[in-house]
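User: tokens in, sequence out, please.
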């Protein structure tokens, strides 16, 4: 029975590790996305840092990416940036690839 218990524990550990990696990649993606949007809005370096943190925090409002997209769309529209949801989603996908690559290279 210990072999089964050991395998079960190993799978649980692997699952927890994978979930943590996904969380870190998503947080990095959101930070990069915030920096991208801040550059579009012409924010200062200090404002960019604060805005990127706000985008990361926005992701905790609900499951999925809709909360982040809603925040970016609202902020960019308010700043007078002409962008549609498809543009934000494309940037989100690009930043996802970059964040994943950064995370893999760091290991």
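Assistant: Sequence out:
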């Amino acid at each position: 029975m210990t072999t089964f218990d050991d395998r079960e524990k190993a799978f649980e550990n692997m699952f927890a590790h994978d979930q943590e990696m996904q969380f870190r990649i998503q947080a990095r993606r959101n930070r990069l996305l915030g920096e991208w949007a801040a550059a579009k809005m012409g924010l200062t370096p200090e404002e960019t840092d604060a805005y990127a943190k706000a985008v990361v925090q926005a992701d905790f409002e609900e499951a999925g990416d809709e909360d982040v997209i809603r925040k970016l769309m609202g902020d960019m529209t308010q700043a007078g940036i002409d962008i549609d949801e498809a543009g934000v989603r494309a940037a989100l996908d690009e930043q996802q690839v970059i964040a994943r690559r950064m995370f893999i290279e760091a290991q």
